[in-house]
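Objective 1b of the project was to move from sequence-level analysis to a structural picture of ligand recognition. The entry below was assembled by the postdoctoral researcher (A.K.) and checked by the PI before modelling. It contains the amino acid sequence of the target and the SMILES of the bound compound, fe (ii) ion.
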Amino acid sequence: MEKVSAHVQLKSTAQSFEQSNHLSSLFQLLSIKDPDVAQHSHRVHEWVRDWLEFLNQDPVQADDSAVKTVRSIQVEIELAALLHDIGKLGVLSEILNKKQALSEDEWRMMKLHVDLGYQMLERLPGFDLIAALIRQHHERFDGRGYPLGLEGSQITPGAQLISIVDAFDAMTSKRCYQKQRSTSEALEELKNEAGRQFDPYWVKSFIRFTQQSFEFRADLKV
Ligand SMILES: [Fe+2]
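Corresponding predicted holo structure:
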């Protein structure tokens, strides 16, 4: 069902039939190359979509300028969430799936996925903002992220949303190279990283969203 809604969104945002086929093919390739990354991307897309829906109805934050900004580019943020790791198509599978710690060179290659994703999409008409969001999803609030080392308000709010959900899903899902954490442990870690990796404003917002959301999600416990 989620895959269908993401596909419909891809089709409606793409400006031509060829463009929509191009994006679907890229995502299909990612699903074949690395099903885990594709599934992670679908989950990040779902969480970001639901969080944005929450922001649309939340009276507490409705008048904040940051919320107005993300609501004005909601479709682009949701698509960037789905495609945020598309650049991993250009990273060797041996590096993507390595169980041991990556060497310095391997890390350098892994980090290239943000620029590769950006380059794959920036020339498609109407995808410049989506490409920019993808390029910023590993920037950090304290300026120690990559590829540009942007900090604080230099980072587009939409990229901060994706970055928080990306980290949350990475912590709470089974991965070969790290221990799976409970939802409450992951939320605690997000709080610890507020002001460092993440913008405290958006961490607070995500926690409010999850507190409301988990009341309706019997399969997940905070
Ligand atoms: Fe990434």
